[in-house]
């Protein structure tokens, strides 16, 4: 709790209430820190969220910042490709290109709702790279940006699905709405930081392809690494197919049950890179008796 005077000012250092509990009061710079906590962290933090909340949010912030920078590089390339600043280009051609780009993206949302994990992050970086390279291939520009938009919308579907599951995991006091809202506040802050950084960056990369490609490589590596660390920092306590395989295999072989702390680090992050667990439910009795 915080001691506040009748005028609404934060006062003192520490006082004791008539109920016998300590009441913390702050002033000056401590007030700024307190306001940041109230705005960007769920109410009741850290007791109201899972133990892996802070680690995940830190790495998620890093990856979001890196993705924001590479997204700016891609946007600049796409605008240049559709003819911004080129007197020979027409508004109609640019509009048609943008509509086709968005249309193929909508198709991607419908067809690829299954994508998840780091596969989606790799796909996002591939889409950004395609947009950066698109102006170098004017004859195929529309096709390239359409495929890129297709990939990005697949990423959006995967991100929405995984974010919902993660919010359920992080919320420990029936406070999903609060956790989700504070995540949105954190994301907005990161995007603002990325925006200001991009304003400083754009004049440097406007006509410098080598610097553009170098920055893309640097921030893409940071984006993938931060995503990897963020995913590995999460300790899910529920079972999906991959974690069920990890738990059942040692149980069936040695009678040992893996806890969440041991099972989560072993979960494959890319679909397809996992061993199949062969199980037969409802096996005929004569098959079992003959063994």
From TrEMBL:
State the Pfam families in the record.
UVB_sens_C, UVB_sens_prot
- Where's the Root UVB sensitive protein C-terminal domain? 256-290
Q: Which residue numbers delimit the Protein root UVB sensitive/RUS domain?
A: 38-254
Keywords tagged on the record: Membrane, Transmembrane, Transmembrane helix
Q: Mainly resides where?
A: membrane
Report whether Acyltransferase shows up as a keyword of the record.
no
Q: Where are the transmembrane segments?
A: 141-166, 187-205, 211-228
GO terms under cellular component: membrane
Write out the annotated subcellular location.
Answer: Membrane
Q: Does the keyword DNA-binding apply?
A: no
Extract the InterPro entries matched here.
Answer: RUS_fam (IPR006968), UVB_sens_C (IPR055412), UVB_sens_RUS_dom (IPR054549)
Similarity section: Belongs to the RUS1 family.
Q: What is this protein called?
A: RUS family member 1
Q: Origin organism of this chain?
A: Podarcis muralis
């Amino acid at each position: 709790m915080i001691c506040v005077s009748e005028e609404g000012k934060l006062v003192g250092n520490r006082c004791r209430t008539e109920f016998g509990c300590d009441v913390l009061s702050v002033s000056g710079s401590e007030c700024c820190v307190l306001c940041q906590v109230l705005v960007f962290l769920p109410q009741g933090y850290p007791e109201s969220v899972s133990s892996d909340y802070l680690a995940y949010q830190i790495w998620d912030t890093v990856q979001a910042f890196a993705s924001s920078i590479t997204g700016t590089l891609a946007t600049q390339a796409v605008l240049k490709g559709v003819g911004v600043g080129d007197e020979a280009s027409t508004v109609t051609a640019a509009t048609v290109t943008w509509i086709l780009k968005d249309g193929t993206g909508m198709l991607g949302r419908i067809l690829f709702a299954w994508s998840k994990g780091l596969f989606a992050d790799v796909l996002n970086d591939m889409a950004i790279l395609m947009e950066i390279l698109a102006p170098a291939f004017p004859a195929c520009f529309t096709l390239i940006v359409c495929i890129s938009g297709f990939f990005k919308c697949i990423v959006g579907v995967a991100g929405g699905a995984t974010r919902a599951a993660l919010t359920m995991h992080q919320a420990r006091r029936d406070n999903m709405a609060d956790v989700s809202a504070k995540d949105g506040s954190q994301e907005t802050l990161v995007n603002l930081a990325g925006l200001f950084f991009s304003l400083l960056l754009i004049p440097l990369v406007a006509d410098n392809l080598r610097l553009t490609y170098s920055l893309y490589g640097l921030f893409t590596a940071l984006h993938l690494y931060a995503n990897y660390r963020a995913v590995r920092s999460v300790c899910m306590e529920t079972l999906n197919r991959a974690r069920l395989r990890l738990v059942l295999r040692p149980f069936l072989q040695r009678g040992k049950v893996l806890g969440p702390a041991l099972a989560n680090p072993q979960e494959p992050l890319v679909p397809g890179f996992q061993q199949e667990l062969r199980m037969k439910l409802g096996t005929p009795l004569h098959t079992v008796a003959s063994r």
